[in-house]
Amino acid sequence: MRGLLAPAAAVALAPLVAASRSAAHPEPDAGVFDETYGGRRIQGLRSAAGPWQVTVDGRPLHLMRRADGTWLTMVDHYRPYPTPLAAARGAVDELGPGTHLRDLRADGGHDHTGGGRHGVHA
User: Fold this and answer.
1) CA atoms of 121 and 78, how far apart (whole Å)
2) From its phi and psi, is residue 84 left (phi > 0), alpha (psi between -120 and 50) or beta?
3) What CA–CA distance (Å, rounded) separates 86 from 106?
4) Start-to-end CA span in the chain (Å)
5) Conformational region of residue 18, where left means phi above 0, alpha means psi within -120 to 50, and beta covers everything else
6) CA angle, corner 52, sides to 57 and 60, nearest 5?
7) Residue 20 in contact with residue 8, Cβ under 8 Å?
8) Is there a contact between 75 and 113 (Cβ–Cβ < 8 Å)?
9) CB atoms < 10 A from the CB of 118, how many?
10) Which residue among 1, 31, 51, 100 has the highest number of C-beta atoms inside a 10 angstrom radius?
11) Phi, psi of 55 (to 5 degrees)
12) What would the pLDDT profile of 13-52 be if each residue is shown by its tens digit?
């Protein structure tokens, strides 16, 4: 009987946890979002052609769509996110408080993180 109590409690509480998370951080509606997360302003707009234009503090955050429908950011190539908004929040978390995205360099190359914490996330 004790072995069934924990799984039953988890099943009963799952909808409450999911509802509280979605209320605190709503997902984008109609292809647009604009919020402050982690002290950063993140904005996203789905263009008429389909791709998302996402910025963090006004600087572009490049997203890549995976074959399974999830999203990767140029800040962290190893962690997939279910939506562009979740990817932008993940980039803010990864950047931390002192690091900002950089604009494109004059030579046309990309330098997206400006240094900061690096590493492989498995």
Assistant:
1) 6
2) alpha
3) 30
4) 37
5) alpha
6) 30
7) no
8) yes
9) 9
10) 100
11) -130, 150
12) 555 544 444 444 545 556 899 999 999 999 999 988 888 9
101 CB-contact burial (10 Å; exposed 0-12 / middle 13-18 / buried 19+)? buried
Contact status, residue 56 vs residue 40, Cβ threshold 8 Å: yes
Q: Is pTM beyond 0.85 here?
A: no
**Dist CA 18 CA 61 (whole Å):** 27
Q: Which amino acid is at 60?
A: P
Structure tokens at 52: 């998302």
What pairs with residue 73 in β-bridges?
63
The rounded distance, in Å, linking the Cα atoms of 104 and 60 is: 9
Among 14, 48, 7, 33, CA closest to 89:
33
